[in-house]
Write a structure and sequence with these properties.
CATH topology of one domain: Endonuclease, Chain A
Helix content: 25-40%
Number of strands: 12
Distance between the termini: 67 Å
CATH architecture of one domain: 3-Layer(aba) Sandwich
Mean pLDDT: 92
Low-confidence stretches: none
CATH superfamily of one domain: VSR Endonuclease
CATH class of one domain: Alpha Beta
Radius of gyration: 26 Å
Shape: elongated
Oligomer: single chain
Number of helices: 13
Order of helices and strands: HEHHEEHEHEEEEHHHHHEEEHEHH
């Protein structure tokens, strides 16, 4: 391979563009390397070192390189005019890994003439610009802002998989339900929009897991139930914890244990110490398992109402949880 071309590839992690090579080399050098199989053309004007591609000759060239290299190639294809978006952006935000065979997604302006191709989906947007607030740089990659990414990715995911990335993004304090709702307001024709709106309403109410959402919808609402405060911040023994559902007048904390909690002895020990510290402040902790909440919701509801009624009959001190 031409030594100058080799140096360009090495400096750029195995990727070159026709535009960059034209600055230092005759056009025939790039074409010769491509014809001889030393370079693989993955997109118009974008090439990678063929040694970095796998041997799946029937797959689209962009699908034959690593996800990171495919993303870099897609960004290079835009010439600085686009950003990674949709499912690809979710991976850059570290909220979901793209599955094998899923294409790379790009957002560009409607004024940009780029088109989709094998293993590449180009989304044209009005009022898009490859700069803040539309685009951020994360780990060196231009990516659509998180709230926009979450809304765009929603209809592309299987229904059962859709809530996970949004719940994680909110729990990790990367965004808020209201910011996502603002992005949703700009997408009136989004598929299954009502389901996303419902999820955001529950997250805004304080639910932070699928189990809490189940409880919110099926168990801990309705006649006799107090207006639970959700995810209440409490300082205990020098550390901050969050109470799943807190009935303030009754000083009852309802904790919803996930499906993996039962066999985790270390987590169980932490929970016991936490419950003891809350008990010292007059707070009764009531735990319901994942199994019971899903399979015995009526019984869980009756037990909760009975516990709350018994606590109302006795005056409660201030728990001082702040």
């Amino acid at each position: 391979m031409n030594p100058v071309l080799r140096a360009l590839l090495d400096r750029n992690g195995g990727l070159v563009t026709r535009h960059a090579t034209a600055q230092v080399l005759p056009r025939w050098v790039l074409e010769d390397a491509s014809r001889s199989g030393r370079l693989l053309r993955v997109l118009p004007g974008v090439y990678v070192d063929a040694a970095l591609a796998d041997g799946r000759g029937s797959a689209p060239p962009l699908a034959r390189v690593t996800p990171v290299l495919a993303r870099r190639a897609a960004v290079a294809y835009t010439g600085g005019c686009g950003a990674l978006s949709h499912l690809t952006a979710l991976e850059v935000w570290k909220l979901r890994r793209q599955m094998p065979g899923e294409p790379v997604h790009l957002d560009v302006s409607t004024r940009v003439g780029l088109r989709s191709g094998p293993h590449l989906v180009v989304h044209h947007r009005r009022s898009f610009a490859p700069e803040p607030p539309h685009v951020l740089v994360r780990d060196g990659e231009p990516v659509t802002r998180l709230d926009r990414t979450l809304v765009d990715a929603w209809p592309l995911l299987q229904p059962a998989d859709r809530p996970a990335a949004i719940i994680r993004a909110v729990n990790d304090r990367l965004t808020t339900p209201r910011r996502i709702a603002a992005a949703l307001a700009t997408a009136p024709k989004l598929a299954d929009r009502a389901a996303l709106r419902g999820l955001l309403d529950r997250l805004d109410a304080g639910c932070r897991s699928p189990l809490e959402i189940w409880g919110h919808d099926r168990v801990f609402v309705g006649p006799g139930m107090p207006a639970f405060r959700r995810q209440v911040r409490a300082r205990l023994g020098g550390r901050v914890v969050y109470l799943d559902l807190f009935a303030e007048a009754e000083l009852v904390d309802i904790e919803l244990d996930g499906a993996t909690t039962h066999g985790d002895l270390q987590k169980r020990e932490i929970d016991l110490r936490r419950d003891a510290l809350l008990a010292a402040r007059g707070v009764l902790v009531v735990r319901f398992s994942h199994r019971r909440l899903l399979h015995e919701p009526d019984q869980v509801r009756r037990e909760t109402l009975a516990i709350l009624a018994s606590r109302r009959r006795t005056p409660r001190p201030d728990a001082g949880l702040g």
